[in-house]
Amino acid sequence: MYTRREVIGVLGSGKEEHRAWVEPLARWIATRGFHLLTGAGGGVMGAAAEAFVAVEGRAGLSLGIVPGAVVDGTWRPKPGYPHAAVELPIHTHLPLSGEQGTEPMSRNHLNVLTARALVALPGGAGTVSEAVLALRYGRPLILFGPREAFHAFPAELERTESLERVCAFLAEAVR
């Protein structure tokens, strides 16, 4: 018999890993039996996937929404995608990201809508656009990391430097 597992999304920089913040979070997600969802790239996404899959005995999977495009009649993933620690890549034809992250042809909609709850770590325009989409779609999202890293994010989102607060937020969101 299959048991439905909730999906927790971890968002953040595609370049900076922020391992001190993301690794304990990803391990917590894994030990609670959730699936982990990322944008399938490097940086925070890759560090989260690596920490998640390193947890022995976990029940959830590392999922990744892969950006891509059809070029000369052939689908191709965006270079560098999916990260090696993504166990189940979900390939899309959606090429847009960054400043264009709220546009209809961005995979960010799938990142936000697939997750039951989301945690955003420091990131650039793409992460900010995912936060905007989470508000638009009514998805629970908390910002995790140094407060000064979130000045460009919507003011109404909760910011915290406490892993305990993030875990309590996620536990409440999936009840």
TrEMBL record:
Annotated Pfam families: LDcluster4 (PF18306)
Official protein name in the record: Molybdenum cofactor carrier protein
Organism field: Archangium gephyra
Lineage: Bacteria, Pseudomonadati, Myxococcota, Myxococcia, Myxococcales
